[in-house]
Design brief:
about 150 residues, single chain, mainly alpha, 2 domains, 5 helices
Length: about 150
């Protein structure tokens, strides 16, 4: 019974301490990731190279079984820049590139779906017309047998 209580106490301590250690790594990684992104952008680099450098650093620092998604890393950078406004006041103007216009993305997806639907409809109509043409040809060939087409039969 005493052993069970010791195990329970150890598991409870691990359960409390593990998230604390993981969170501090995440905060440090996102803070330095934000610093990388903002410094590179302020230095004149384009969005893509700055974003790749910051995202790669955040992914690398997270470690573990699961990696940080691009959306999550962008949110972490944004959160850090907003939280530490005085440190990153020059970087606020670059945050809009981290979160692309969601309405534009939805509109593009709808347009893509509409084009796919139109292509399917055209294909369906083409097959229907081919089938009708084939049926019409069969009807004509049944109507005109070899006897009716024999040019020497009077």
């Amino acid at each position: 019974m005493q052993r069970f209580k010791e195990k329970k106490l150890i598991l409870l301590a691990l359960g409390i301490l593990t998230p604390l250690t993981l969170t501090s790594t995440k905060v440090n990684a996102s803070a330095f990731g934000a610093e990388i992104f903002c410094t590179m952008r302020d230095g004149g680099n384009d969005h893509e190279s700055s974003w790749e450098a910051a995202y790669t650093y955040i992914k690398k620092q997270k470690g573990g079984l699961f990696k940080v998604s691009p959306k999550n890393a962008a949110a972490q950078i944004t959160e850090t820049v907003i939280r530490e406004r005085d440190k990153f006041n020059y970087c606020v103007e670059y945050l809009d590139n981290l979160h692309p216009n969601r309405k534009l993305i939805r509109d593009l997806e709808k347009e893509e779906e509409r084009k796919e639907k139109e292509a399917k409809d055209r294909e369906k109509k083409r097959k229907k017309l081919e089938k009708e043409l084939e049926e019409a040809n069969e009807a004509i060939s049944e109507k005109f047998t070899d006897e009716t087409l024999d040019r020497y039969s009077y």
